[in-house]
Amino acid sequence: MPDGGPPARDGGQAELQELRARVAVLEARPTDPPKHRAKSFLAAVLIVLGCLLAPLGVVAAWAADVVGDTDRYVETVAPLASDPAVQDAAADRVTDALMTRIDLSTLLSGAAPEERPRLEKALGGLGDSLEDAVRGFVHEKAREVTGSDAFATVWTEANRTVHASVDKALTGSGGAVRVEDDAVTLDLAPVVEQVKQRLVDGGMGFAARIPEVHTDFTLVRSDDIGKVKSGLRLLQILGDWLPVLAVLLVAGGVLLARRRRRALVAGALAVAVTTGLLGIGLRVFRAFYLDALPAGVSPEAAGAVYDTLTGLLHTMVRAAVALGLVVALAAWLTGPGRRAALARGLWTSGIGAARATADRSGLRTGPVGPFVHRYRAWITGALVAAALAGYVLWPHPTGWVVLGLALALLLALALVEFLAAEAPADAPPPEPAAPPT
């Protein structure tokens, strides 16, 4: 046995002991220093705040766009003039207002002799009792007016005038308004005048002597208007800045997080969930709103008005939900997970097979392939930036717009992958020319 054997074993034991001591020190060291824990906590707080502000940002953008903009408001409510429920409700209001001004006992006796046969014929075909006949006749003429193009004109102009009332009722701002008993109403006096003329044409000449009648059509009615208008006024002031703040908060939290990709997926999904809850809340509130309507207000017409006023808000909600899901899916697909890697492998192998088939068919990229391969990262970044710019600049993007932009970006990235062919490392030298004979 060599003389140096025992000291070598002792040295090995000492080295082993030293390694064990180092492992013990490393195991005793905290895996997450306080500085990292503070950053992770701050990142979580920022993401949570951004997710909570996301639905408020959607409401703020809606309040600034619809409630605060007269032209946008009129454009939104104009289609209501052709809604049958609104037309029926307006005709009912006009009929009730006129019936209070018609003296049934002197109706026939006050009619001119030449008008009496036509009036008796009209009333006789509409009901047994005189009151029912008159009401049916008046309602028929009122329904003719509310179903005409003239009503659409009156409706549009009246809503333009009353927009200050809507702004006042919902935000607390505005000038001279008509908000009574937590309700915003639209005056149907021009419609009444047109109905009176049709009554005269139909044989009720005395209708021309009915004085000017003002009757209201309820647009918005709720006992809670006074409670929410201050908050909605603040959201209207913030306008488009609140959504930007929500995005910046989530982005700041993602940048501070230790696992940024996971934080981005969680943040995007949380934004989609909280904004989706806003959409569900709007549907639930609609049911409570209609159930709380007082007698005399048409639930069908009120529902049509509610759906029209919140239509753009629902569109914004769906767009935000779609954007959150697309961002979360994109972040997951580009991550290191096994399933994400499998999806990317299928993507690249499919495009590679298509490119190989094209090469065998003689369809080569030429100098474009090496150029795209060299600057692929820059081209990809430019395409993503272009898709985001398209979403931001699109006026009132919908969920389908988000999906369309995502598919267009996916197609563009597939084209980049198809064109990104590597240049051959060592091209074979050209054959030397044969010497002249």
What does this structure look like?
It is built from 18 helices and two strands. The longest helix has 34 residues, at 34-67. The radius of gyration is 37 Å and the shape is elongated. The N and C termini lie far apart (81 Å). A two-stranded antiparallel ribbon has the order 1-2. Helix 14 (311-333) runs parallel beside helix 18 (399-419) and helix 15 (338-360) crosses helix 18. The relative contact order is 0.10. 72% of the residues lie in helices and 3% in strands. It is mostly helical and 437 residues long.
Biggest beta sheet attributes: 2 strands, antiparallel
Please bin the fraction of helical residues: over 70%
Structural class: mainly alpha
Neighbour order of strands in the largest sheet: 1-2
Straight-line distance between termini = 81 Å
Mean pLDDT: 78
What is the global morphology? elongated
Strand portion: under 5%
What's the total helix number? 18
Radius of gyration: 37 Å
Give the low-confidence spans: 172-179
Order of helices and strands: HHHHHHHHEHEHHHHHHHHH
Q: How many distinct beta strands?
A: 2
